[in-house]
Amino acid sequence: MEANVVTLIRIALVFVTVGLFQISSFYLQAFAIFMVIFVIYLDSLDGYIARKFKVASEFGALFDIVGDRIVESIFWIYFAYTGMISFWVPMIVITRGFLSDNVRALAFRSGKTPFGKKTMMKSKFTRFLVSSRFSRGFYGITKAILFTYLGILIFLNTGIEKFKWTINSDIIGTLYLFSDILVYITLFMCIVRGLPVLWDGKEILFDKIYPRTINMIDEKSSNI
Fold first, then answer.
1. Percent over 70 (pLDDT), the chain
2. Looking at residue 42, which CATH number applies to its domain?
3. Mean pLDDT of 129-136
4. Which of 87, 137, 118, 114 is nearest to 196 (CA)?
5. How far is CA 126 from the centre of its chain?
6. How far is it, in rounded angstroms, from Cα 213 to Cα 171?
7. What are the tens digits of pLDDT across the range 78-118?
8. Which domain does 63 fall in, by range?
């Protein structure tokens, strides 16, 4: 239960963080940067709590993924809204999230989980890409660095506007080039970790397991 509470807190704090950025206050935006780091840190904390107090559950694993989706989607959408990244990026990320989470939800109905001993991933390679500590950790770090970095750029823009900071245009260009590189690395990891879920769950997508389940339910209902 404690781990799920942390997930709920993380979801609430991401709204607070975006709100702080929106206020356009130099000091509040500086605080918002630390909030970004804290919100992302909580992602690892809820998993630690679940293991530490032995309260890990199949629902908790799914709820943790839901929390991840909400947090990262809000950050992606907000930074696209500010013009820091292309609007195509959150569109791709959110579409990938809906597809992979739909497959995971259907697999969960048949007793399969995203991670752990009953994972829906079928091969060592797909398990490595999706559920290994290296893959999850690397993707988490890239998101943490990217969102924090974009927050710093917003902070710098506010400083330039309000305090007339003078920064060489070449330096500004380099900073934005680096942000583009971080965006594409993170987007690449997002896609690479999503495709194996669709591949290992292809029977759910193409063999129409879900419609058959609905038909079975309808048949049982009609026999009552």
1. 80
2. 1.20.120
3. 86
4. 114
5. 19
6. 58
7. 999 999 999 999 999 999 998 888 888 778 777 776 666 77
8. 2-212
